[in-house]
Amino acid sequence: QGESKFGIYLPAQALAGQACPTLFYLVRFNLYRETFAIKAHAQRLAAQLGLILVTPDTSPRGEQVAQGDHWDIGQGAGFYINATQAPWAEHFQMESYVVEELYDLVIQQFAVQAERIGIFGHSMGGHGALTLALKYPEKFKSVS
Question: Is Hydrolase a UniProt keyword of this protein (predicted)?
Fold first, then answer.
């Protein structure tokens, strides 16, 4: 429930309607979807290789979203899993968001080679990438 944001980089080939390989990048704890683009300058390499880059946020955000008393619980710390306990379960459904909602949206709305989608990440995002790739091998053909 609630609004979720994501970043996407489309190379010239995708903008021209050509289907391209796609990588989902999961960022580390307490960062935002823009961090990868800002710090890694990944668009330059993606442009050269004709790759679409998708960067979901790490967790749901907003006043209605549960926040923990400790710095590593709550907004910024979704761990790309589905929470099962209150008060987190209402909004923290990050696994479903990435592998169902966002995955399907990207395939439907952008020029994606569905058989060439990979996932990678750093720190908390690396944990999420490995977990999701192992759980959904039919969706993610590579993992790092």
Answer: yes
pTM for the full predicted model: 0.85
- What's the chain look like in SS3? CCCCCEEEECCHHHHCCCCEEEEEEECCCCCCCHHHHHHHCHHHHHHHHCCEEEEECCCCCCCCCCCCCCCCCCCCCCCCCECCCCCCCCCCEHHHHHHHHHHHHHHHHCCEEEEEEEEEECCHHHHHHHHHHHHCCCCCCEEC
CATH level 3 topology of 6-143: Rossmann fold (3.40.50)
Q: CA gyration radius for the chain?
A: 15
Mean pLDDT of the chain: 84
